[in-house]
What does this fold into?
Amino acid sequence: MLRAPTSSPAPWRHPVWLLLIGIGGFLFGIGLLLLGSGQTARSGEFVRTTGFVVWAASIGAQTAYWAVIAGPLWADLAAVWRQAKPGRAAMLTLAGTLAVIVIALPLFSAAARVSWPLWGHTMKIRALTIIGGLVAGVPALSGIALVQRQAGERATGRIGEDDVAAALEARSQILRFLSVAGGVIGLAVLAAGALRKATVPDFVAEGDFPQEGILLYGAFFTGLLLLVYGPAHAALKRLGVRIRDHYFPLSEMPAPDADSFKGWLDRRTTLETLLQLNVTPGQQLQASLFILAPLLSAVITVLVPKPT
It folds into this structure.
């Protein structure tokens, strides 16, 4: 009996393939740094230091992370894209703007004027920045914006039976995109801190690579992340409030002394909890710390002194 052909699972769904993808990404990052590193005596001396090993490992961790999350990220983005026809133009505009920022930032950065010890440092880091931005950073932020547009459309329309499930799915999608973006930015900031510890003051002057530069680097990308996530969070909140008020409007609230009051209030509270409309202070603090993780990484890098 002939069996119907089945599609093979995506590579990132198999742990062995996922491991191989991660290892390949790690080796790619380190290999790019080592490419031509023996061209000059200064570069050769630098790659033999412990600081370079730590920095190269942080770069390898970045490229491994990009490789591992790229497949699931783009699959999620494609799924959201198919569902959100009205928001496609806005998302493409945002994606284009972010891509320009990713490409232009290394060109105008003060780091481009530093005399780095590694041969081809500027071009290598510029290439890594563009790859990481286009493969992971821009798609993650674009996904947040696209889901935000979907939630906003539902919040202004007629509330239906499927809106509760849609709101929960939208929140789940935004958190997945948010975790990817936070990881990309956080690893980039940590790599910048590792680079400073590896180069200052033995290879690069303190004034050419100040600690505050890492803090500004983290603050810039954290601000960019908040700029995209803020409207999405607000859109989810509006949709959740509309759903709650549709099913449990205050105008239909029983009198406090009525027998049905407790049951009505319990059901309304259950829906609010499900939609996360009433976030506790602890949950809000956790969310804030997650959003601020890239900036906190920069602060820690600045405040922890380099061992002598």
Q: What stands out?
A: The chain has ten helices and no strands. The CA atoms of residues 178 and 189 lie 16 Å apart.
